[in-house]
Specification:
Layout lengths: L7 H8 L6 E2 L4 E6 L3 H18 L4 E4 L3 E6 L10 H13 L8
Antiparallel strand pairs: 1-2, 2-4, 3-4
């Protein structure tokens, strides 16, 4: 079954429930900050596990004390879908466990 892109309005409405997440129209993105490198690296591993469970992967960037995610659905023409929003929700749920700063 094909995954359908969300309208820009739907994306914006769903992101209202995900503080810190933004869209450029074709992707949703967020950067998290941490006290240091180890909690940021641990968050990357946890995100990778979630992505494997969903079978849906983001562009993921690890800095010294930051983790950045940017995602869209390639099979939907590089647009934002419900899969992207679900990934964002699941990442938001674990961020406090790793000490992500608001």
């Amino acid at each position: 079954m094909a995954v359908e892109p969300l309208s820009q309005k739907d994306v914006e409405e769903r992101l209202q429930e995900l503080p810190g997440w933004t869209t450029d129209g074709d992707r949703i993105s967020r950067t998290y900050s941490f006290e240091g490198h180890f909690p940021a690296a641990a968050m990357v591993i946890h995100i990778a596990q979630i992505q494997e469970e969903l079978g849906h992967h983001s562009d993921l960037t690890l800095g010294y004390n930051t983790v950045g995610l940017s995602v869209n659905t390639h099979s939907a023409g590089g647009k934002v879908t419900g899969l992207d929003v679900e990934l964002a929700r699941r990442v938001e749920a674990i961020a406090p466990l790793h000490g992500a700063r608001p």
